Amino acid sequence: MLFDPDNAIIKLCSQGMELEGQGMPDEAGKLFVQAWNQSTSDFEKFTSAHYVARHQKTVTDKLHWDEEALKYALLVNGSMIRAALPSLYLNIAKCHEELKDLTKARENYQLALSYTQFLSDDGYGTMIKRGILHGLERTSQAD
Fold first, then answer.
1. Which residues of the chain carry a pLDDT beneath 50?
2. Of 45, 50, 40, 42, whose CA–CA distance to 17 is shortest?
3. Could you give the 3-state DSSP secondary structure of residue 27?
4. What span, in angstroms and rounded, lies between the C-alpha atoms of 32 and 9?
């Protein structure tokens, strides 16, 4: 339902992912920004912000876009969105950890953990859970 392949924003993001796969990150980044600029719904803004975040040059800029993606994801209802929350919080936690704000990092790792029941039981879900648990381990050792 949410990932309508005919949606213009989804098409732009898909084209951007194809360009990433072809080793053309700058061109992909331009499509993701175009998707953001053309987004009109909370779901489209969540989706495009998520991809824009991946192409930021600084941790601070990546954190900004990850937080934008989360802000809009929290406005969208549905199980598909809940399944994205662990990854979004994980990305935000990693940014805070890189910025040496271990308190915020730990808070976001814990939030990520609280949504893991919505992850699918597959390789992706396992990878996200492992990243969250390792992040919690790292940030609790800093106490």
1. 1
2. 50
3. helix
4. 9
